[in-house]
Input
Amino acid sequence: MLVCGFTLSLLGVLGFASKGESNESSSADSEGDPVAMTPVVMQFDWIFNAQFAGFYQAIEQGFFEDAGLAVELRGQATTPDTVGMTLSEPEISFGSAESNVLLADAAAGADLKIIGVMFQDSPMGWMFVDDGSIREFTDLASKRVGVHADGSRVIRLLLEEAGADTTNLDTYDCGYAPSIVIDGEADAMQCYYIDEYVKLEQMIGERAGIFLAKDHGYRAYSQVMFTDVETVETHPEVVAGFLRAVKRGWEFAFEHPEDTVELIISQYSSELDREHQLKSLEKIKELMIPQPGALLRVADPKVFEEGLSRMRDRGLIQESIDAADLLAQEFLPGDGD
Output
């Protein structure tokens, strides 16, 4: 399993059991009596950073423990198969991934259920050094563009929908360092504007340029939380408690950004830049709460259906599935939870 060097758990290393017979750990209540805790794994599709701040605070502030959950967080440096890693985990497990990745895997037969959406829009984009050689999004059709697994299909699709001839589009799998475009290895590269683009801005200031996918017809949710069908059917109380704790964690993280970044750096990723994480968390809040009350609100099934339709039309998936059948949003906490 590709993980970011280590995993972090609320109550240490936990034993394994089938999802239908979940193993129990224990904590203690205010009087010192043992309280049964349910082990849960949360698999991220990226490294430990501000992108998952709500989960760190849900552990730090005891919100998961309040829900009777002993949560282990797993982060990784690349995104080889987040869905497969999550669904094959013997413990009760949850994951987060891009919606296009989940839809493609579901169409290929993955037995998953979408339980909630963190980012109300996609932060995906393509960043570049603004030296005058790239002025319009369609200019990328004749450029060398670095891409990642979760967005390799998207740029060609959007360029073609914009009427561009992509015959000379040169894409390749690239890393995540802004130096890729600064040093000229690529003319542009896929990024998250909450992460890599923040770094590029820090490095070259106003010369940093970006085309956001959402500004060019890409309507998609991002950091979509999911689990397997068995967990939804046999452990509904775990799903509901997990989501309730996640929401509380994000609320706390946004209310205490300085403390949250200190927590991230001190306990999760000491090499991260403090200012970068603060700016990233600010942009993440814009994505998660674009309007009051939007935090973990019920997602629109039409957005997923449009994604499936677009992928079918382009031959990216073969099987016809109903987006509504993938959703299990009845466990989302209400406004007062």
Observations:
- The chain has two domains: 7-121+221-331, 124-216.
- Residues 141 and 167 are 8 Å apart (CA to CA).
